[in-house]
Design brief:
single chain, about 130 residues, alpha/beta, Deoxyribonuclease I, Chain A, four-stranded mixed sheet, 2 helices, about 15% helix, about 20% strand, globular
């Protein structure tokens, strides 16, 4: 699992793109990517140039953008001049039929202005022979 925070200048994405990251067996990449884009936020009317970089990085790990079961905002604001947005994302292993969606937990937001993203991973018990 990779948990990412990328600032407004996309420093983390630039770093991941500029270096050769040699990680294997990554099932999940999640975090606050600070990218507003109409690909995952239907209320946002624009496309971000950073989306291609993010998708390229995810693809290099064999990860695809997960669709939330409950499609709601992930970052909430008290500022009336700003709107809530979807900037927290989850990418899941492309080759899995069992791990392909996630859930946004608004109830557990607590003092943060970000909602929690969760995914259930079922681990099968190995039978002794």
């Amino acid at each position: 699992m990779i948990n990412i925070y990328s600032d407004n200048q996309q420093s983390t994405l630039k770093y991941l793109k500029d270096i050769e990251v040699n990680l294997s067996n990554v099932l999940i990449m999640t975090g606050d990517f600070n990218i507003k884009d109409n690909n995952w936020d239907l209320s946002y009317p624009h496309y971000s140039i950073h989306t291609d970089t993010l998708k390229e990085i995810a693809n290099s790990f064999n990860l695809g953008l997960s669709t939330s079961i409950n499609q709601v905002s992930t970052k909430y604001t008290d500022n009336p001049n700003e709107s809530n947005s979807v900037i927290d994302l989850m990418f899941l292993w492309i080759n899995s039929e069992k791990i392909n969606t996630h859930l946004i937990l608004l109830d557990l937001q607590s003092s943060s202005n970000h909602a929690l993203l969760t995914v259930n991973i079922i681990v099968n018990e190995i039978q002794n022979r």
